[in-house]
Fold:
Amino acid sequence: MERRDFIKLSSAGMGTLMLPISGVAISADQLLDKPMDVTYKKKLADIALNAAKAKRGHLC
Structure:
């Protein structure tokens, strides 16, 4: 097997591992029906920002 074919197959395999095995699909309309609480949004934003900073991410 050539290197290029191996990379294609392994990346396809890793991509399928990222797909959720079980879960409920939610439409955009359902998400827009009930607005999210502002304090909950800020908490999620803080978690995401702290995770990015832990990985040495920065804003440009």
